[in-house]
Amino acid sequence: MSYPGLATATDDRTAKASPADVRRKNRQLIFALLFPTKQYSRAELGRRTGLSRVAVSDVVGQMLEEGLLRETGQAPSGGKGKRGTLLSIDTNRLRIISIDLTQEHLLHGTVTNLLGQPLRHAEVTLNAGAYVSVDIIIELIEKMLGMSDGEVIGIGVSSPGVVDGGVVRSSTMRGWRNLDLATPINEHFGIDTTVSNDATSAMLTERFFGQGGPNMLFVRMDSGLGSAILLSDTPVIGELHAAGEIGHISIDLNGPLCPCGKRGCLETMISADALRKQMANVDDDERQAILARAGRYLGQALAMPAGLLDMSDVCIFGQPDIINTTFIDAAQAYLDASTSSSFHKHTVIRRCECGPDITVQGEAIAVLLQYLAK
């Protein structure tokens, strides 16, 4: 994959690359082949990467010592020669702190292994409308560090809104504008800190541990509404880091006022919170009608990017009371009617099956990718 830190064996190497650059690239190539759950011998890694036996041995030795890899047993016999030792990702030694800021009334923190699997959890409960300061986030991270049973290689924070490097440029949910999260956290703990958009974090989990392929349009529907785009295994960030902000596209210029200043933004019309308010105290027939209308609205919003990008996979993450058959079928019907053609592959809208830890796991993966790119 071509995320930073998970380069593929087809990536170009230039003659001017320094020895440190070559070593880093080789490390990324080997890690990419093994992540998340593959097992290969040194000889097989050499065959798959095209690296020499000496280069593989050198990089693998360093990664074993660092705690990135572990030896897991003998490879199956392939003839008369000596069987090689299998290598895999080491999930026992290194740890990542991952923070999820997407839930309105609490902050969720985890200690994860290198696969992003949560090992320890902690939460901070928020009062309604409470402002989330950097100090509160730091307090949660301190708690998570105290719960870690291994060396922490990085801290990840997943936030709703437009994220530019370590700065949240705009988050209507949190009321933030140009809030630098990475710098104060990094300075406080002396640990590299990564900040990511929440939809992008969740998309990483779907890509590595769900059903997502290298090309995907990922939609996240909860208290807000956002999306992330993956093309040829590369996230589309946008010129101002706002690619995927589908929630603030207006589909009704006379609709309800959005905190962003526009009217009729998709987020005000069909976010999970908005739909639950619309469905309160109505009978089942009206409930189904509201969900079907919301599905058509989403299909309308997705038609243009799906057509422009020739995207065949749309994955939607959300709770099953909202993202159900009624909603999916309505969105699919609108999308089919608006995009079907002889030259466009059929776009399938499906529900994400990843669990509730999708955000913290994806953010831990984002931290790992940045760590490997150093």
From TrEMBL:
The name this protein goes by in its record: ROK family protein
Chain spans, region Disordered: 1-21
Pfam families: ROK
Species for this entry: Bifidobacterium breve DSM 20213 = JCM 1192
PANTHER family, A to Z: BIFUNCTIONAL UDP-N-ACETYLGLUCOSAMINE 2-EPIMERASE_N-ACETYLMANNOSAMINE KINASE, ROK (REPRESSOR, ORF, KINASE) FAMILY
Organism phylogeny: Bacteria, Bacillati, Actinomycetota, Actinomycetes, Bifidobacteriales
Protein family according to the UniProt entry: Belongs to the ROK (NagC/XylR) family.
InterPro entries: ATPase_NBD (IPR043129), ROK (IPR000600), ROK_cs (IPR049874), WH-like_DNA-bd_sf (IPR036388), WH_DNA-bd_sf (IPR036390)
